[in-house]
Amino acid sequence: MRNKLLAGAMALALVGCSQQPADDAASNEAPAAESVAEEGASADAAATPRIGTEAAPGVAFDYAYTFRLADNRIAKVQGKHAAACESLGVKRCRIVDVRYQLSDEKLVEAQTQFKLEPSIARRFGAGAIESVEKAEGVLADASVAGEDVGAEILASQQRSAGSETEIARLEERLKAGGLSKGERAEILSQIGQLRGQVGDERQSRRAGEARIAWTSVAFNYVSDGGLPGIGHENPFADAGETLMKSGSTALSFILTLAAVLLPWGILAALIVAIWRSRFMVAVRRQMREKPGATDAAPPVG
Question: How many C-beta atoms surround the C-beta of residue 77 within 10 A?
């Protein structure tokens, strides 16, 4: 479990979004909330390199963790993670989705999605790993995906600037006059299209800025499958279920066999009963006595 934890922590540290000075400042602002989110950060995670936000300016990160632990502990751990987010306040952490599902195989699958202030996202994940480890679970998988939204915003600004310049040129053309009705209508149509593009670019930049301002963090919880070599299901319950199925199969076979043989058995019983009846006994006796009587009779003449 220690090796898995170290591997996950290393993956997160490569693109971690917190800087040590920023972490210290954030801790001074809300020590009580931070103590919940960072509870017992693991020694392995603390030993990994720390890379600050200035190492990846304008990059929006998406963190994804998969925790594997016992079914009956998933709900409790999920609740602790939600409580840790709530303690930070909505300005630093928001819960955007919660899911808990019990499959037909009686296995639990759950997920909680957060939006976090970028400077605390990595430490929030480290605290979650520690809480899972205390519940005798493991970090099964961890990944961090980054998108250079800053470059997209810069390109959008350049496109908007080009559109604004073209709008200004067309408006100057309108002011100059000397245009036919068709030319004026065409220029007005071009200006309308360019202003629509400027509005779309502005909306796209706002969405990109929101992605940079909030880091997406997803916690996935999966069943550990039960005891090694036995599986998730209770072995005694499985044995009892197998016994019931085996008994049901045997009873079904016996009933089917009885249904096939019963008519023939009844027929055989009737034949035996008739054969042993008084009438048949008398008939057999007479059949045996007639030849003897013929042999004993005196000759005629």
Answer: 22
DSSP state of 93: E
229 assigned to some structural domain: no
Helix-helix angle 71-88:118-134, to 10 degrees: 150
Domain-embedded: residue 130: yes
Does 169 lie in the same domain as 41? no
Among 97, 139, 127, 112, residue whose Cα is nearest residue 33: 127
Enter the tokens of residue 236: 């005694």
The answer to whether residue 49 sits within a structural domain is: yes
CA distance 280 to 115: 98
Residuewise pLDDT in 10s, the chain (301 residues): 333 333 444 444 433 433 343 344 334 434 434 444 444 444 344 433 444 455 567 888 899 999 999 999 999 999 999 999 999 999 999 999 999 998 776 788 999 999 999 989 999 999 999 999 999 999 999 998 888 888 888 898 999 999 999 999 999 988 888 888 898 899 999 999 999 999 999 998 998 888 888 999 999 999 987 544 444 555 666 666 777 788 888 888 888 888 888 888 888 888 888 888 888 778 778 887 765 555 555 555 4
For residue 42, give both structure tokens.
């693991």
Domain count, the chain: 3
Q: Which domain holds residue 130?
A: 2-150+215-223
